Amino acid sequence: MTRTASSVWNNCLLFIKDNIKPQAYKTWFEPIKPMKLAGDVLTIQVPSKFFFEWLEEHYIKLLRVALVRELGDNAKLVYDVRMENTYSNKKPHTVKFPSSNKKPFNSQGMTMPLQIDKRELKNPFVIPGIQKVKIESQLNPNYNFENFIEGDSNRLARSASMAVSNKPGGTSFNPLLIYGGVGLGKTHLAQAIGVRIKERYPEKTVLYISAEKFTQQFIDSVKANTRNDFIHFYQMIDVLIVDDVQFLSGKSGTQDVFFHIFNHLHQNGKQVILTSDKAPVDMQDIEQRLLSRFKWGLSAELAAPDYETRISILKSKMFRDGVEIPEEIVEYIAKNIKTNVRELEGVLISLIAQASFNRKEFTLSLTKQIVDKFVKNTKKEVSIDYIQKVVSKYFEMDVTTLQSKTRKRHIVQARQLAMYFAKRMTKASLASIGSQIGSRDHATVLHACKTVDNLTETDKQFRKYVDELTKKLTF
Ligand code: ADP
Ligand code: MG
Prior knowledge:
Elements: H1 5-19, H2 22-28, E1 33-38, E2 41-46, H3 49-58, H4 60-71, E3 76-82, E4 94-98, H5 155-166, E5 176-179, H6 186-200, E6 206-210, H7 211-223, H8 227-235, E7 239-243, H9 252-267, E8 271-276, H10 288-294, E9 298-301, H11 307-321, H12 327-336, H13 341-357, H14 364-375, H15 384-394, H16 399-403, H17 409-425, H18 430-436, H19 442-458, H20 460-474
Parallel strand pairs: 2-3, 5-8, 5-9, 6-7, 7-8
Antiparallel strand pairs: 1-2, 3-4
Helix pairs in contact: 1-4, 5-6, 7-8, 8-9, 11-12, 11-13, 12-14, 13-14, 15-17, 17-19, 18-19, 19-20
Bound molecules: adenosine-5'-diphosphate and magnesium ion (MG).
């Protein structure tokens, strides 16, 4: 029977599998490909330089025993290392590294000494020269659970975060991935976990870092030839919080190194917390193996807060700042700023600043001016379609009813109101309004506008309709 690289390697794998934990086997041995067998030299391909270093550092004895069983005392091992191209889009190429192990692999002749780092670890957060290695958590104590307001929009994410901070690494929420749009509290919540863990377990090493900063540090470490220090540094952490992982998109070198750090931490029961602006399924240009890791634990969404929650958030910030603002103003802000808690805060801060600098009262008109500045860019022109929808909904009918030929009084009234608002709020001509609202002519629209004007003057109930619809359409 002829031996091939595959047959030899498969036998080695059977032996290795029996001798290490399944998780470690999966991570470190499954990705290896047998490439070539020449005499007693087996060449295997590994996905990265880091991978090669890791095998050499942790599994060399095991590999040796396995190989010697298969190939005899003169067995040699050569790694084919796929090199990353962090800075270019060139196709990955491979570089050969002989195993460094002295016995029995050193007869190779081309031995490249493996430097197993005995120096003190470089901590990218410590200024060189400072002796004591103490990892600063980079946490902001102002982001905590106490001031994170709970609501339907964040209940799952918040309670999972609390569970993780009570038992870091000890829940199935590992990694915990918090995702959602901008300004919805991802950073706040992720930091709150870190802050709480530090309170409960002061001895644990917690680190908060943005994916952007992580990437920068990694690139710097490659340039400075301190990639190993970088990796070792991150592998010492008990609770790693990486904010905005979508930033890793398309950065395959950084993804690769993060993948290995992640595996190490996960295997050792360390907690990983990630945030992202989208769910894993929607992430682009993130390697599959990393995405699948992201899905291992729990992905919890932070949605836009509902009205009640927006009011509570505003009130809690007012309470914190010791200001009192009339209820109707708070309601106005909550009604108009809907999709971003940061903007909600921004309006409040500007309002407080304006009022105190100019010694003004908190008035609705001042609030309106400020809110307008915040929402101006996003405010879209009201369309005739939208007007018809709002009016129909207000009168509890559907749009086709509103447009129908019927002469029933309440339907006619609704149709006339829709025409009136279309004239007032859009730049469309009478003819165009008529054709869009049930194929009427311009004279009908003109008549509708006059009727609404008249009724507003004389009919109190009708005036109420106009007021309420104005509010619905403008806010
Ligand atoms: P993201 O990271 O999702 O863009 P942040 O965590 O930076 O958002 O949140 C934006 C601002 O909104 C922060 O000042 C944060 O404190 C505040 N915030 C968000 N959600 C809440 C909440 N549920 N309760 C209190 N403040 C919140
Ligand atoms: Mg953020």
